[in-house]
Specification:
Helix content: 55-70%
Shape: elongated
Order of helices and strands: HEEHHHHHHHHHH
Radius of gyration: 33 Å
């Protein structure tokens, strides 16, 4: 006598066939899996990073996009965090990164307004010094350059250079020990040199046109405001001596010669 077993019919489970308590358990389990998937996040073979929230995950996606110069994606991610996760610390950071994204695209006016709004809306945030620095850097980036197809930088409008100098000096006055202070100091020196070159250019323009009083005014501005620019100061002072002599201002010419001699002796010591 042989026994044969008949195949067991496959069970088909559907949501309707499961008891309510089992459905509830499945939903909770799925939620746990979802949260776990957020805790390690990475893409494109990059090392996975531990994240604690969806806001952080989206923010990091924006940072990766910004690093890759994918500005459209970066803007989308930062705006998403800013609008959807208002109470997350990454909302404030996303506001800053929107400014950085605009800056990276040379949209400097947009960047400046973004950083200003950040300072106004979050005056006590730890990244306010950075926002002040970026405002100065954005103005500095708009200074005239010496591109060969254009007139020399010192012949063009110095409005952006003056704006940069004001913004950078404001940042340094407020946060002299900030980590970007040295960069700001370098830019301040460049701005002052460019402004001094512009004053000398205008003074010479008037001198060549034999407009002696106008030239005198510009030279006096140069030697009064740009004493830290030694080479420019000397050039301007020597030429101003000649202007004084032409205008028969003998005493002023003599005094300025004395200053030139004293400055030369100091530099030799």
């Amino acid at each position: 006598m042989s026994w044969t077993s008949s195949p067991t019919p496959a069970l088909k489970l559907t949501a309707r066939s499961l008891p309510p308590y089992l459905i509830s358990f499945a939903c909770r389990f799925a939620g746990v899996i979802c949260c776990l998937s957020l805790s390690t996040w990475g893409c494109g073979g990059q090392p996975q990073r531990q994240v604690k929230s969806k806001a952080e995950a989206i923010y990091l996606q924006g940072m990766d996009a910004l690093s890759d110069e994918d500005y459209l994606t970066a803007t989308d991610r930062f705006r998403a965090v800013k609008t959807k996760y208002l109470f997350s610390p990454y909302a404030a950071l996303s506001e800053l990164r929107l400014g950085d994204t605009a800056f990276a695209q040379t949209r400097y006016y947009e960047a400046i307004e973004t950083f200003r709004l950040f300072i106004q809306s979050r005056p006590n945030h730890a990244e306010v010094p950075y926002a002040y620095w970026k405002i100065g850097a954005a103005y500095a980036a708009q200074r005239p350059s010496d591109f060969f197809l254009l007139p020399p930088a010192h012949e063009r409008d110095r409005g952006p250079t003056k704006d940069a100098l004001r913004a950078l000096q404001n940042y340094l006055d407020r946060y002299p020990e900030h980590k970007r202070a040295k960069e700001a100091q370098t830019l301040v020196k460049l701005c002052r040199q460019e402004l001094g070159e512009y004053e000398l250019y205008v003074a010479r323009f008037y001198r060549h046109g034999q407009k002696w009083e106008a030239a005198r005014g510009r030279y006096e501005i140069l030697i009064e405001r740009f004493k830290d620019q030694d080479e420019l100061w000397r050039a301007g002072a020597e030429e101003l001596v000649g202007i004084y002599q032409r205008l028969e201002l003998t005493q002023k010419a003599t005094q300025l010669k004395t200053q030139l001699k004293s400055r030369s002796q100091s530099s030799e010591e």
